[in-house]
Amino acid sequence: MAFQPIVDVAARQVVYYEALVRGPDGESAGTILGQVTDDLLYQFDQACRIKAIELASALDMQARLSINFLPNAVYEPEACIQATLETSQRVGWPTERLNFEITETERVQDRQHMRNIIESYRAMGFTTSLDDFGNGYANLDLLTDLRPDTLKIDRDIVMHCNRNPRRQAILRSIVALANTLEIQLVAEGVETREESRCLLNIGIPVQQGFYFARPQLEALPVIDKALFD
After folding, report:
1. Which helix (H) or strand (E) holds 50?
2. DSSP label at 227?
3. Cα within 13 Å of Cα(181), Cβ side
4. Which range (81-95, 136-150, 162-176, 191-205) has the least confidence?
5. pLDDT of residue 74 exceeding 90
6. Is 201 helix (H, G, I), strand (E, B) or coil?
7. Which residues are known to be catalytic?
8. 53, 91 contact by CB (below 8 A)
9. Number of alpha carbons in the 13 Å side-chain half-sphere of residue 81
10. Which residues form a coiled coil (predicted)?
11. Structural domains in the chain?
12. What 3-state DSSP class applies to 27?
């Protein structure tokens, strides 16, 4: 696992660390996921959760931990969460500091199944995020059925927002929508100070990207406080 911080620029602090799967030689998540067959999906999902929690505890992480999961790997939320709960108890990780990030929404044919996962996790005290909002399948229609705690705005909308009025207009619309639905926003893929300042002025202080830190293998990246200025 590698960890990448999600920061609140206004509060000048790390609020989450996202756990990102990597290969034994640092191979990307896409490379690893491409090798996971459907019959191994459940075991892979469970192993990633356990590894992320164990490492977060070993690294003395103080922020919330965001774990990616594949909705199709969850056949029944209460049953599939047991290994996560057992691991949290074993290493002393507070379960209220767990966030589950929904990935690969295009592979979910049963929207009710995803809704059941989100509602079940909320009832158990977890929070959930919807990844890559505004790109591909993670679009507005999902919000007619789903109630995630957080929307992560895709890099395709964020990039060059500081010099693109159309992107700024779209981002302001997303802020208004999120405020109405009482959903927090995270801007993904922030790579420059100018993008970060623009997002903050639009009303999106919670941000993630290479501007703050690249994912670091089995370690917590140190954030230069000057990046918040």
Report:
1. helix 41-58
2. G
3. 20
4. 136-150
5. no
6. helix
7. 188
8. yes
9. 18
10. none
11. 2-221 (3.20.20.450)
12. coil
Q: Number of H helices and number of E strands within the chain?
A: 8, 9
pLDDT tens-digit map of 25-37: 889 888 998 898 8
User: What gap in Å lies between CA 19 and CA 93, rounded to an integer?
Assistant: 15
Average pLDDT, the chain: 92
pLDDT value at position 112?
86
As given in the structure block, the two tokens for residue 205 are 């202080």
On the question of pLDDT at 218 being above 80, the answer is yes
The radius of gyration of the chain from alpha carbons, rounded to an integer in Å, stands at: 17
Q: Are 195 and 159 in contact (CB under 8 A)?
A: yes
pLDDT confidence bin for 38, thresholds 50/70/90: confident
- Using DSSP's 3-state secondary structure scheme, residue 60 falls into coil
Paired strand residues for 17 = 5, 65
pLDDT band of residue 109 (cuts 50, 70, 90) is low
Using a cut of 0.70, tell me whether the model's pTM lies above it.
Answer: yes
- Angle between helix axes 193-202 and 165-181 (nearest 10 degrees) is 50
The Cα-based distances of 121 to 66, 185, 203 in angstroms read: 13, 19, 28
Tokens of 120: 């079940």
87, 56 Cβ separation under 8 angstroms: no
Q: Phi first, then psi: what are they for 61, rounded to 5°?
A: -65, 130
